[in-house]
């Protein structure tokens, strides 16, 4: 059933990544779509749509249809995904209707959320859809031996969700998931400027601040930047200068949640799993893992190795596209690759 025309789709909150075993990563662009307000037709997707976000004329509207790692706006997700797959079909010279697709979901996604994602992919014309849990895809993409009974801890920090999972033998054995991730940190930065500087900034500006000035709480060369927005006092354009020290408390609070998740996972997992984690270490993936100084800081917080995935923005899509190499099933219809797991309590 799977062939070189099969694709793996990472339907992320921030980005959509599509992988094909023959051609590699075919598409990686923001999960944003711009629609004509009157006709509801797609005007732009991906990079161009993100550049237009918050700047569209009244005749157009820019939408982010995915939130917290799942679909928040079904119809517009289908429109976005259809446009993405049309582009993929042209680049890879494949027929979407003859293509099998694997798509990943957060391990913490509900049955309803998983079914909605499957339905969205099927609505594009694809006939066979395999649902893959993101931690398993991440492990495959990172080159871990998931066919062996060795446990690995995956820390996936995306835009919509943060998950700490233990993966072994093609399945997720334990998982903790919170819907607090890169986008949540952006929102905290926006709120900080509103309260401390009386300055209104947008999502794109907050993201730039996070990427340039965001550091894990460890010694680093002080950086600063000018931030432009609209004054809440005068309603006029205004500029303020901030440093990496100014937003450090926001970063520290966010990272404290991740440390707590890791501790809960290790402390409440069976001894055999914990032993593997100590030996194998933690694999970091997702865009949030690229936070300045994060790997080094986390290494100092735990007593086992921390390894940054060499390709954290694409490894989940790659693993999703390679899932058929690890399945003992012959796929003849919809398939969901999941395993029973430990339910570990976590309070964010």
> Tally the helices: what do you get?
10
Radius of gyration, rounded?
21 Å
CATH-level-2 architecture of the largest domain: 2-Layer Sandwich
The coarse silhouette is: flat
Proportion of residues in helical segments: 25-40%
**CA-CA gap between termini:** 42 Å
| Main beta-sheet strand count, sense and barrel state | 6 strands, mixed
Strands in their spatial order, largest beta sheet: 3-2-1-9-10-19
Provide the β-strand percentage band: 25-35%
Following the backbone from N to C, one meets helices and strands in this order, namely EEEEEHEEEHEHEHEEEHEHEEHHEHEHEE
Low-confidence stretches: 328-340
Structural class: alpha/beta
Oligomeric description of these chains: single chain
Number of domains: 3
- How many beta-strand elements? 20
- The CATH topology of the largest domain corresponds to Nucleotidyltransferase, domain 5
Mean pLDDT: 90
CATH superfamily of the largest domain: ATPase, nucleotide binding domain
Q: What is the C-level CATH assignment of the largest domain?
A: Alpha Beta
Subunit structure: Forms polymers.
Keywords: ATP-binding, Cell shape, Cytoplasm, Nucleotide-binding
Protein name: Cell shape-determining protein MreB
Pfam family, one: MreB_Mbl
């Amino acid at each position: 059933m799977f062939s070189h025309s099969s694709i793996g789709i990472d339907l992320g909150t921030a980005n959509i990544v599509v992988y094909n075993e023959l051609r590699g990563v075919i598409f990686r662009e923001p999960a944003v779509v711009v629609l004509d307000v009157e006709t509801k037709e797609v005007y732009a997707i991906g990079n161009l749509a993100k550049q237009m976000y918050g700047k569209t004329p009244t005749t157009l509207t820019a939408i982010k249809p995915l939130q917290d790692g799942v679909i928040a706006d079904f119809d517009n997700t289908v429109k976005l995904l259809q446009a993405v797959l049309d582009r993929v079909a042209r680049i890879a010279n494949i027929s979407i209707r003859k293509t099998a697709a694997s798509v990943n979901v957060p391990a913490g996604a509900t049955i309803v959320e998983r079914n909605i994602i499957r339905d969205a992919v099927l609505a594009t014309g694809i006939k066979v859809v395999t649902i893959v849990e993101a931690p398993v895809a991440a492990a495959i993409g990172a080159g871990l031996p998931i066919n062996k009974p060795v446990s690995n801890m995956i820390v996936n920090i995306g835009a919509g969700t943060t998950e700490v999972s233990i993966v072994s033998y093609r399945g997720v054995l334990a998982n903790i998931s919170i819907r607090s991730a890169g986008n949540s940190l952006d929102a905290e930065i926006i709120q900080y400027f509103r309260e401390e500087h009386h300055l209104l900034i947008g999502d794109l500006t907050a993201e730039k601040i996070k990427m340039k000035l965001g550091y894990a709480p460890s010694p680093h060369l002080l950086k600063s930047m000018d931030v432009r927005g609209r004054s809440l006092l005068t309603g006029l354009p205004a500029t303020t200068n901030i440093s990496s020290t100014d937003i450090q408390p926001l970063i520290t609070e966010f990272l404290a949640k991740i440390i707590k998740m890791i501790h809960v996972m290790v402390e409440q997992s069976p001894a055999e799993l914990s032993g593997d984690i100590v030996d194998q270490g933690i694999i970091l993936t997702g865009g949030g893992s690229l936070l300045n100084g994060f790997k080094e800081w986390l290494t100092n917080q735990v007593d086992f190795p921390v390894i940054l995935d060499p390709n954290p923005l694409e490894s989940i899509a790659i693993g999703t596209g390679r899932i058929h190499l690890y399945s003992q099933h012959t796929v003849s219809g919809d398939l969901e690759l999941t395993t029973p797991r430990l339910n570990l309590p976590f309070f964010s």
